[in-house]
Structures are given as structure tokens and as C-alpha cells.
Amino acid sequence: EGQDVGVGPKHQKEVVDGVVASTFEEGSCISRHQSHLYRKASPYKPSSYLKSKLRDYEDLHRTCKFHYKTMKNNDTKSSNKSDDDDGARNCKYLIWTSFDGLGNRMVSLASAFLYAILTHRVLLVKFQTDMNGLFCEPFPDSSWLLPKDFPHWEDQNQNQSSFRVLHLRHTNNEHYDFFHCVHTQQLLQKIPVLILESNQYFVPLLFSIPSFRKHLIKMFPVKDTIFHHIGHYLFHPSNEAWHFITKFYQAHLANVNEKIGLQIRVFDTERKPHQAILNKILSCSFKHKLLPVLSSPLKNHTSKAIFIASLYSEYREKLRSMYMANTSVESNEVIGVYQASHEEYQNSNDNKHNMKAWSEIYLLSLCDELVTTSFSSFGYVAQSLGGLKPWILKWSYGEQPVNPPCEEAMSMEPCFHYPPKHDCRNNSIVNVTSFFHYTRHCEDFGNGVKLV
Ligand code: GDP
């Protein structure tokens, strides 16, 4: 049982054709070489301009890797440079720091990487122990981990001239109201070290800056593939996560006709209206023929797996008892209901908890169809990695049914929940979509914007 997971020369081509550099040694990151055995080939190919930008970035990362050692906290113009430092003299850094859940972290990290590419900065990540060992190193011959002896690791005192903290968290909305203004970018350009504090997918913001936009359009001719490509480049499950993912996949998902992923995030944790949410999921799934209606006999040779990602086990139990009672082995009608964990509560400071979250995001992304929860970046990451437009469950509090229960996403991009409202051109407050190019208001959160 299970599928062929052998990796030989015949499989190398896929790695080379994608966004990933071909120079990686295989054992250090098995998923980078095996993921195409689990995932359908993406219909979205990276542009050659994107690939060349990524290769340029990798060179920059390599060149600047150790340059920080010559930087001083207050002065980045080190006096005793050797000739070897010439190439590194202008090294500038963007340091990513983590906030909120894993989905939020991944969407802000992807945005940070794109900003680093566009501004010729080296991206370094300040992972605490809760983020250790989730992902492989993304850049060849180099590390993206912020070295412990990097200046400013401990001391984030704003009075130093050589760095600034960039607040792009939704709680600091007023700070990033001016981030997209040309003038702000000109000022930021001069600062050697930027420390990013963000939980947002701020890629649409980058599109509103003209000098960035022209590169972004060339890099991503198909606008809604940005996280899809950047995510596939950056986020490869570590060997530990890959072991968990592939073991689960082979046990439950490998041999079915269709995999339906249900991502069930409960924001109303006071009341946890499980039954109302389940009703919404069922009416969405029946309406769009994702799951068979129980009163009608199941078709012969149907084999579907329902993969549930949720902090709670109630959904699995209810769906399992519904379908178990109605399946018949003789006619090969099988609907399996599976869940990899049920953690009960969010615990984003715990490494093992994040490992499960990452594995489940990845497993969702391997499904053929997705039903996701409004406003959840956990679901956004899964859909974009999977190249899927999910059915998004309509937002509702309490027990009242909503009609329609769900809506198909316009695009697979994550939603930028809290865009700024400031129009730099005439210093006024505007409806955001009027200056965000290629965007619409998000289906699941009207204040937000997403690329389509
Ligand atoms: P969001 O809050 O829904 O936008 O998504 P985030 O990923 O940013 O934060 C939610 C966090 O709660 C996740 O990162 C996990 O730590 C936890 N969590 C929520 N749903 C699930 C789930 O289905 N499975 C697991 N393992 N953890 C979850």
C-alpha cells in the first residue's frame, strides 16, 4: 500500500523546473525533493523573471551572510574593512519577528521576503524555540536564522540610527498608514537594519508602491499566484514535519478518489457553537456536491477522505458516525473521516503544537477541495500552497443558519485584513481598493483587500 515515494534522477526535473534552486543536497530536506510525489503538478508556472530574482536574492544572501559581524550597534560604516568587504559594504537587512498564530506568521514572512527582494535586503528570521525545526533552510549554502551575535538581537532601543522597527501589525494600523508612500520608502531605504513586526499579508501594499509594482507585475504575471510561488519557495516541511505528514497521508489519504479538506476554526471560543458550524459545513458541502447527501444511496466505488483540521474533535466524531452508518463495504462505498490532532486550544508558543499546526496546514493543501473558515490565515496558507480556491464558510455568530452557507473564493491569495486608508497622492483618506491595484475587497472580510 502507500504510493511510490522513490526519488531518483527522473524526479529531479520537477525540482529544477520550479521556483527552488537545484543545488540543494537531498538528505537535509527530504520534502523539497519528494513533495511533487504527493501534490498534483501545479498549473501555475513561475515566470523566468521570478526565478532570476530568486537566484539574485540567493547571491545577495550568500554575499551578505557574515557582513553583519563588521557592523556596530550605532554605526554601520565599519572603519577597517578589507577589499573582500566591498561587495558586502551595502548589505542591508530585514529581520522578521513572530507574532500570533502560525498562519499569521507565514503570511507575514512571505510578505517580508518579497519586500526584501524588492529592496535588496537580506531576510533573517528571529525564530524563538517555538519556531525551531518546522521548516527547512530555504536559501542554498546559507542560513536564514538570525545569528545570536547579530547587533540588535537583544537591544531594540529605537534611539539607534542604524535600525528601525517597522510596525505592520493590525494593532498598529496608524503606523503603517504611511508605509506605502514613496517618501517613506525613500527614508527606509537608508536604514541598514529594519526589524519587522507584522502579522499581516501585506503584499497588496507593495503593489501600491510604483517602483515595486513594475517588478511585481513582471515577477507575477498571474496576480493571484504570489503566495503560491513564494510559499513553495520558502516553506518546506522539515524532515520531522515531513515524517508526520507523509505517515498520515499514506495511512489515510493516499488511496482515495477524492480528498476533501475541512478547516474549522472557531473564533467564538466562549460558546463554541459546534452544531451550528457543522450544519453550515454540511449544507455547504451538500450544496456544492463535495459530500454525498446521506438520504441518497452512495455511488458505487466512491472513496472519499474527509480530512478535518480543527482544535476540536467534535466534528470528526459527528461526521464519522454519520458516514460510518451509511457506508457499505460490499459496494465499495467508503467515506473516511480523519483528523491528525485536536489540541483544544491555541498554544502558539509551543514548538510541538506549531509542528502539528504546520503539518495540518500542509495536509489540507494536499486535498482536492477545501472548505475553510472566514478570516483565518491558517486556511489561507493551506489554500495558496494547494493552488486551491476554497469554499469559504460565511461568517456568523450564534446558532442562526446563514444562507448561502459558503462562497467560493475569488482567488487563492490570502486576504490583507487591515490595509491602510491613507492616499499618499493627495493626503486624504480613501476607499482602499481605489489605490490598491489588482485587488478586490475580500469575500470573508469586507475591510480587507486581496489580489485577484
Ligand atoms: P488564524 O488565527 O485562524 O488566522 O490562524 P493562525 O494559524 O494564525 O492561528 C491559529 C493557531 O491556532 C494555529 O497556528 C494553531 O496554533 C492553532 N490552530 C487553529 N486551528 C488549528 C487546527 O486545525 N489544527 C491545529 N493543529 N492547530 C490549530
Automatic annotation (TrEMBL):
Gene Ontology process terms (BP): cell wall biogenesis; cell wall organization; xyloglucan biosynthetic process
Family classification: Belongs to the glycosyltransferase 37 family.
Keyword Transferase: yes
Main location: Golgi
GO terms, molecular function: galactoside 2-alpha-L-fucosyltransferase activity
Organism: Senna tora
Protein name in the entry: Putative fucosyltransferase 8 isoform X1
Signal peptide (from-to): none
Glycosyltransferase found in the keyword field: yes
GO cellular component: Golgi apparatus; membrane
Subcellular location per the Swiss-Prot or TrEMBL entry: Golgi apparatus
Keywords associated with the record: Cell wall biogenesis/degradation, Glycoprotein, Glycosyltransferase, Golgi apparatus, Transferase
